[in-house]
């Protein structure tokens, strides 16, 4: 009988948790860009973000020595926090990208000033927002 009651209570708890609104404003929630009313933006827009990345990325020296060159897009996931800081930075397509280039892409976002981002808003409140930024790295073949 006790097992049945605990199973029943566990089932009710599971159903209650699953039925809750996925856009609830819990402080730890991370919203996708399509779930926020106002998405996080880099001051100056996407062109300014691209310019910042291209100016500050430190492509490893060995990449310039590759005979075949290199032409890939690094997909970087990160979160823009409520204060505009960047956190939870990781490379999504790790298997296709050399490790030292992954670190260089992560470092660009780690060194980014919190003042550069305007955080996302949902229902008038600042919220955390997940972001994916493709960084295209193209190095010509060595002659």
Strand-helix topology:
Elements: H1 2-19, E1 30-31, E2 41-42, H2 45-56, E3 70-80, E4 86-91, H3 99-110, E5 117-118, E6 120-122, E7 125-139
Parallel strand pairs: 1-7
Antiparallel strand pairs: 2-5, 3-4, 3-7, 6-7
> N-to-C terminal Cα separation, in Å?
78 Å
Helix content: 25-40%
CATH class, named Alpha Beta
**Radius of gyration, Cα only, in angstroms?**
21 Å
- The overall strand count is 7
Spans of at least 5 consecutive residues with low confidence: 1-26
Tell me the fraction of residues in β-strands, as a range. 25-35%
Order of helices and strands: HEEHEEHEEE
* Count of separate DSSP helical elements: 3
**What's the pLDDT, averaged over the residues?**
81
Q: What does this molecule look like?
A:
The chain is of the alpha+beta class and 143 residues long. The protein has one domain (25-139): Fusion Protein Consisting Of Minor Coat Protein, Glycine Rich Linker, Tola, And A His Tag, Chain: A, Domain 2. The chain is 29% helix and 29% strand. It has helices spanning 2-19, 45-56, 99-110, and strands at residues 30-31, 41-42, 70-80, 86-91, 117-118, 120-122, 125-139. The strands form two sheets. Strands 1, 3, 4, 6 and 7 form a five-stranded mixed sheet that branches. Strand 6 (120-122) and strand 7 (125-139) form a beta hairpin. The model is unreliable at 1-26 (pLDDT under 50).
